[in-house]
Amino acid sequence: MAIRLRIACVALTMAVATLAVAAAPLPTDPRVARAVQDYLRQQQAEESKDRDERVAAHLDALANNAGSPVLANPHGDITVVEFFDYTCPYCKAAEPRLMHLVAGDRRVKLVTKEFPILTPASMIASRMALAAAKQGKYRAFHLALMQREGILNESGIVETAKAVGVDVNRARRDMAAPDVTGEIIANFNLARAIRVFQTPAYIVGTHLVTGDSADINFAVEVARAKK
Prior knowledge:
Elements: H1 2-23, H2 30-57, H3 59-64, E1 70-72, E2 78-84, H4 89-104, E3 108-114, H5 120-133, H6 138-147, H7 154-163, H8 168-174, H9 178-193, E4 201-204, E5 207-209, H10 218-226
Parallel strand pairs: 2-3
Antiparallel strand pairs: 1-3, 2-4, 4-5
Helix pairs in contact: 5-6, 5-7, 5-8
């Protein structure tokens, strides 16, 4: 019993000592802080370079794929590519700023990449959008659905399609068309190739814009791409 008690006391003493060390403040050597900052900056620069090299390697598929809808000036010399999901609130919040950009700058070509990754309704919405494109209704449907509030479901998608003049019976057939499926698969493959794993994601020129979508200044990014 005495031996067990001594062992317990030793273990308790060691535990207290460990906690005391863990609670002690870390040394505040400014050289260490600078080294960490330099390392992080270098790492970020290398990651940014890698992303942009990946974009450059897939630029034609990103900017000129015949199956990807173009919302603004197909002949623009500065291309903005948008990966988005119709159920993504951040995509919807950024959309008015993006449309304001293309309304004020005729040099911008805006390409949309349907990227339905969030909910089952996302896939239905993307298929309906690409089916609407076959009727010349993509832009109207896209903008209406991006402006729709509340939880998105199939009935809301169909309601929106009808409201903008889509022949829903025809669209339901076209939703399963091989080219519609092919476009969505191609977008998933492109996203993986350039390391896009969330929505929204924007490529401006040859640069994959990172950071919080609410903080993106599209006009500034386009101005950089023009240089």
